[in-house]
Write a structure and sequence with these properties.
- By secondary structure, the chain is of the alpha+beta class.
- The chain has 30 helices and 31 strands.
- It has five domains: 1-36 and 736-891, Isoleucyl-tRNA Synthetase, Domain 1; 183-270 and 515-595, no CATH class; 299-510, Valyl/Leucyl/Isoleucyl-tRNA synthetase, editing domain (Isoleucyl-tRNA Synthetase, domain 2, Alpha-Beta Complex), CATH 3.90.740; 691-725, no CATH class; 892-953, Ubiquitin-like (UB roll) (Roll), CATH 3.10.20.
- Strand 1, helix 4 (80-94) and strand 2 form a beta-alpha-beta unit.
Length: 954
């Protein structure tokens, strides 16, 4: 009746669990939790001091990756991770932990600024409205967040400390000997005393203020420099390497990105490359994420080698110094600073026509080629294309091992961002060099003996011979011979020789580049930096923080033709002259200064937000040391400290996660925190996907308006295509949490998202399947509440043994599953127990009902609170103890053993789980069905796999 006539069912069962009942229950308990402060996590100072029992509890700090408050609001795919961490946090509370779980908002960035450009609405206005809307949506899900600790990165009280951290980094340098950051004042003291020699010689006292600033700029962990950057005219800003896609376009907006030389702020993250690599070993992270970080950092061992040229040196980094005798030319990146210096006015005598690119002079050739290279992305420049391009600079360097003159080219396949921006080309052993040498008619010398039978005459080769498992040949001079040596031994010998001769040294190189930290935007943290009349950067004192964003009339940076690389950025802040030009007293009297008009990237605020959750209202220091040690300090199994569980998408592997690790290490080195790493355990949740329907033009059509007929899909009569993909407003397939909550309730939504599959696997959304979890909750309700009267139906009698076994197996299984974040299988076990109670029929024993409610509480907290209260309890279910299984009921009394004769099943026996193989064989051979099936046939072999299988071979 309930399925075919809901109205009649409602009359017959007025106290049935319906969407309306769920909505009332959920709103009431959400209000209760807010008023009571149910999820407030006590801190070690003050809160725990007066409660010894609470102070003795182990702590658990659980975090989600910062959400960005989009104007489009949430769809059902967004809360997947939030629900998962909430379930886990609730389980941890019920197993005796002091749990910190909250959520803030990462609110600076391009979306709000682009909206401001389009509408004139101040980014703060739209962002705060989006935050409020998101808070409403999240509250409906019943998430157990400590709301006292929430904040947004755009709060001046928050970004005051983002600016403060920047200044700590600016006022620090990396001491390679100590392997840590130290205050820049200690470096100055070393220069002043002569303990440390100045680069280039001289004395500190003889340097001008500008020269001193330049020297320190070479050491500071935050520094400004003129360097090649990723310039995106379409966005009007520069981008970090990590914000450029594999095809050389902006991650946001898909605009082309070019190389340009601009003065920008950088973070010297490369100083921490070794530590960022080494400390990955102590983190409980997915191996795929660790591998991405290792590859991005890109550690490689080799040697630096100096090639003399006109009284100076071109320094190269090579991982194969054993092939030096085969270096027949050199290539510099087009942006290399030495290119201009080594470009003469005329072509030297004997220059091959193919080397000149058809230009009259080396300068003409270099200028034209540089313009061509600037129009390509790094990815395009490194693509394995067969057509190699480049031009001769007009200069020759000297190969230091054999004295050969080697021509110096520029070519776009060499990048300034890797090594020294210069390579020695060994075409016999590198495919790109081989192709270049063939194209430019350059010599190819065989220096590694081929093992594939091709011989040593390179004129017959179709490709380079690249191998580490071969012997060196044709590699000797009067002072050293590598001939006959395997590669590893040859590398060691030549590296030692280079160092002894003072023309090279063994070294380690990294793919990782310093972090570009400037953005030509408005909606970001202002830099707490001002410049004096000599252009020297000065840090603002802490008393002047926060430096707040000023009002501007135009929020947009000056954007340009996306395809025009020859443009310069213009920032919105530079248009506010009153804010930009200020008189300040920085300790030596009032002076006129110019503020930095770039802003920090949107990653800045998320580099340290875990610390603010610990101590969100502290206006005197970044975080109280005792509070930080309690929540994040090192402990057994977590030698580097950090958040106990961090859940978010895998897309941040080399952006946010790498940056946050860097900031954490700097703060640790300077003594501000006890945790070396920000996040000890990382879990990447999968994605909730949805079908995207597209018409013949390729445009998405509303998924709710699509009809399925005979296996095909139609929208307004037109056949459309269907493909599983992302869920989103622009794809017209988004389902809002509100719509599901209105139809079924938040507890049903929570259960469905957790039951869809393993948390780390992507899964398709199916609104029609949500009802299955709603029915589970209805059956749970009926097992405790009479739908006709609303009275509790549980009884005080003890349950039967079958029910006890079902209960304790469920408790044991759910415990293990929740601990391992296997929420889908935990729900399956709850469902199995609930179905068992329904099948047994009759009133449910109070002890079983209460245990069942507690099992459900982390997953569906609203209905659990309601049933817990109906069962006569006054305290919230949130802080009740999670049930513990009785081992006696977890182990089966008997298991089914299959007996096979010649591979065919002849009997099934009920035997004790702990039966021995000898006893099981005796029981099987004595069974009357087995005896009859054998019919006296001689037994050749009995294979026993206790307790579940006996196989008899006759």
């Amino acid at each position: 009746m309930s399925e075919t006539n809901p109205a009649a069912a409602e009359v017959a069962a007025p106290h049935r669990y319906t969407a309306a009942v769920a909505a009332e229950i959920e709103a009431r308990w959400q209000d209760f939790w807010d008023v009571e402060g149910t999820y407030a996590a006590p801190n070690p100072k003050g809160d725990l001091a007066g409660d010894p029992e609470l102070a003795a509890r182990p702590k658990k700090f659980i975090m989600d990756m910062f959400p960005y408050p989009s104007g489009a609001g949430l769809h059902v795919g967004h809360p997947l991770g939030y629900i998962a961490t909430d379930v886990f946090a609730r389980y941890q509370r019920m197993t005796g932990h002091n749990v910190l779980h909250t959520l803030g908002f990462d609110a600076f960035g391009l979306p709000a600024e682009q909206y401001a450009v389009q509408t004139g609405t101040h980014p703060r206005v739209s962002t705060e409205a989006n935050i409020e809307n998101m808070k409403v949506q999240l509250r409906k899900l019943g998430l157990g967040h400590d709301k006292r600790r929430s904040f947004a990165t755009i709060d001046p009280d928050y970004y005051k400390w983002t600016q403060w951290i920047f200044l700590q980094i600016f006022n620090s340098w990396y001491d390679d000997e100590a392997r840590k950051a130290r205050p820049i004042a200690e470096l100055v003291a070393q220069f002043e005393s002569g303990e440390r020699a100045l680069p280039g010689g001289g004395s500190w006292s003889a340097l001008s203020a500008t020269d001193r600033a330049d020297v320190l700029g070479e050491y500071r962990l935050a520094y400004a420099s003129d360097a090649p950057v990723n310039w995106c005219p379409g966005l009007g800003t520069v981008l970090a390497n990590e914000e450029v896609t594999a095809d050389g376009r902006s991650e946001r907006g898909n605009f082309p990105v070019f190389k340009a030389k601009l003065r920008q702020w950088n973070m010297r993250i490369t100083a921490y490359a070794d530590r960022l690599l080494d400390d990955l070993n102590e983190l409980d992270w997915p191996e795929a994420i660790k591998l991405q970080q290792r590859n991005w950092i890109g550690r490689s061992e080799g040697a630096r080698v100096d090639f003399p040229i006109d009284g100076e040196n071109i320094t190269v980094f090579t991982t194969r110094p054993d092939t030096l005798f085969g270096a027949s030319y050199m290539v510099l990146a087009p942006e290399h600073p030495l290119v201009d210096k080594f470009t003469p006015d005329a072509w030297p005598e004997g220059t091959h026509d193919v080397w000149t690119g058809g230009h009259a002079t080396p300068a003409d050739a270099v200028t034209a080629y540089r313009a061509q290279a600037a129009s390509k992305s790094d990815v395009e420049r490194q693509a394995e294309a067969k057509d190699k391009t480049g031009v001769f600079t007009g200069s020759y360097a000297t190969n230091p091992v054999n004295g050969d003159r080697v021509p110096v080219f520029i070519a776009d396949y060499v990048l300034m961002g890797y090594g020294t921006g210069a390579i020695m080309a060994v075409p016999a052993g590198d495919q790109r060099d081989f192709e270049f040498a063939r194209a430019f008619e350059l010599p190819i010398r065989c220096i590694v003996e081929p093992t594939d039978g091709r011989g040593t005459d390179t004129s017959t080769w179709d490709e380079a011979f690249t191998s580490y498992d071969a012997k060196i040949i044709n590699s000797s001079n009067d002072d050293i011979s590598l001939d006959g040596l395997p590669v590893a031994e040859a590398k060691a010998r030549i590296t030692e020789w280079l160092a002894r001769k003072g023309i090279g040294e063994g070294t380690v190189n990294f793919r990782l580049r310093d972090w570009l930290f400037s953005r030509q935007r408005y909606w970001g943290e202002p830099f707490p930096i001002v410049y004096d009349e000599d252009g020297i950067a000065h840090a603002l004192p802490e008393s002047m923080l926060p430096l707040e964003l000023p009002e501007v009339e135009d929020y947009s940076p000056r954007t340009f033709d996306p395809d025009d690389a020859d443009t310069q950025p213009e920032t919105p802040l530079s248009r506010n002259a009153e804010w930009m030009n200020v008189t300040l007293d920085l300790g030596d009297g009032p002076k006129r200064y110019r503020r930095e008009t770039n802003t920090m990237p949107n990653w800045a605020g998320s580099c340290w937000y875990e610390l603010r959750y610990l101590d969100p209202h502290n206006s005197e220091e970044l975080v109280d040391p005792e509070v930080e040690r309690y929540w994040m300090g090192p402990r057994e199994g977590q030698p580097h400290g950090g958040v106990d569980l961090y859940v978010g998408g895998a897309e941040h592997a080399v952006l946010h996660l790498l940056y946050a690790r860097f900031w954490s290490k700097v703060l640790y080195d300077l003594g501000h925190v006890s945790s070396v790493e920000p996040f000890h355990k990382l879990f990447n949740q999968g994605m909730i996907q949805a079908f995207v329907y597209r018409d013949s033009r390729g445009f998405a059509v509303p998924a709710t308006e699509v009809e399925e007929r005979d296996g095909a899909y139609y929208h307004q009569g037109e056949k459309v295509s269907r493909l599983l993909g992302k869920m989103g407003k622009s794809l017209k397939n988004a389902v809002t949490p509100e719509s599901i909550c209105a139809e079924y309730g938040a507890d049903t939504l929570r259960l469905y998202e957790m039951a869809m599959g393993p948390l780390d696997v992507s899964r398709p959304w199916d609104t029609r399947a949500v009802v299955g979890q709603f029915r589970l909750l209805q059956r749970l309700w009926r097992n405790v509440v009479d739908e006709a009267t609303g009275e509790v139906t549980v009884v005080g009698t003890e349950p039967g043994e079958d029910t006890l076994r079902a209960l304790h197996k469920a408790i044991d299984g759910v415990r293990q599953d929740l601990e391992g974040m296997r929420f889908n299988t935990a729900i399956a076990k709850v469902t199995e127990l609930n179905n068992h109670l329904t099948k047994v029929g009759g009133p449910v024993s109070r002890s079983v009902a209460e245990a069942l409610v507690l099992l459900v509480a982390p997953l569906a907290p609203h209905i659990a609170e309601e049933l817990w209260r109906k069962l006569g309890h006054t305290g919230s279910v949130v802080h009740q103890d999670f049930p513990v299984a009785d081992p006696a009921y977890v182990v089966d009394e008997a298991v089914t053993c299959v007996v096979q004769i010649k591979g065919k099943v002849k009997a099934r026996l009920e035997v004790p789980p702990a039966i021995s193989e000898e006893e099981l064989e005796k029981v099987a051979l004595g069974d009357e069905k087995v005896v009859a099936a054998l019919a006296g046939a001689p037994i050749r072999k009995v294979i026993v796999r206790a307790p579940k299988l006996v196989n008899i071979v006759t």
